[in-house]
Amino acid sequence: MPITVFLLDDHEIVRRGIAQLLESEDDIEVIGEAGTASQALARIPALRPDVAILDVRLPDGEGVSVCRDVRAALERPPACLMLTSYSDDEALFGAIMAGASGYLLKQVAGTDLVGAVRTVAAGGSLLDPNATAVVLERLRKGNAPEDPRYASLSPQEKRILGLIADGLTNRQIGAEMYLAEKTVKNYVSSLLHKLGFARRTEAAVYAADRRRDGQQD
């Protein structure tokens, strides 16, 4: 069975070039593509590719978010290979946090991209060595960039996340913040989606870990 691949890039000529490169290999088949994050989130679950090659910067979002959402939604998600024109430490950190299997610059040689697809399809991890070294150095020094998932939360959602970590129910959070219980429920659903969690217990553990590491606001 060939390795099935989905392509996400907002430039059609880039998608065509990558598709032509991959389709020239006997063991790889491109089964779908998209130019926006919303299109990708609709098509990837239906197509179930082995590998998703995702552009980091998109007109309506980020490839990192697509990676996180797909991995949260599917029992057997594709291996996500991030592809970008820019060496961005925070985007790389975000890709690592989202569970991406690889992160490459678009300047990568065609043979290396083909090899990367095969590597991540087989369950391996492949990250650009130079970019990874920078992020690991920042982690070592204790000044890693903010988790983009947490940064995406509104101030209200961050406060509710803290109260979830305190063990409060939606009704108790509503009383604390003078909000209707239904409104709190909507906030909780939103923050779970942004963090890539299915259950509030996961969010509570995440918030507790942030506190332990001294990252709470």
Write a structural description.
- Residues 146-211 form the HTH luxR-type domain.
- This is Response regulator transcription factor.
- Keywords: DNA-binding, Phosphoprotein, Transcription, Transcription regulation.
- It holds the Pfam family Response_reg.
- The modification 4-aspartylphosphate is found at residue 55.
- There is one protein chain.
- α3 packs parallel to α4 (89-98) and α9 (170-177) packs across α10.
- It is built from eleven helices and eight strands.
- β4 (57-58) and β5 form a beta hairpin.
- It has a six-stranded parallel sheet with strand order 2-1-3-6-7-8, sandwiched between helices. A two-stranded antiparallel sheet has the order 4-5.
- It has helices at residues 12-23, 37-47, 63-73, 89-98, 110-121, 129-140, 148-151, 155-165, 170-177, 181-195, 200-212, and strands at residues 3-8, 28-34, 51-55, 57-58, 61-62, 79-84, 102-105, 126-127.
- The termini are far apart.
- The protein is of the alpha/beta class and 217 residues long.
- The longest helix has 15 residues, at 181-195.
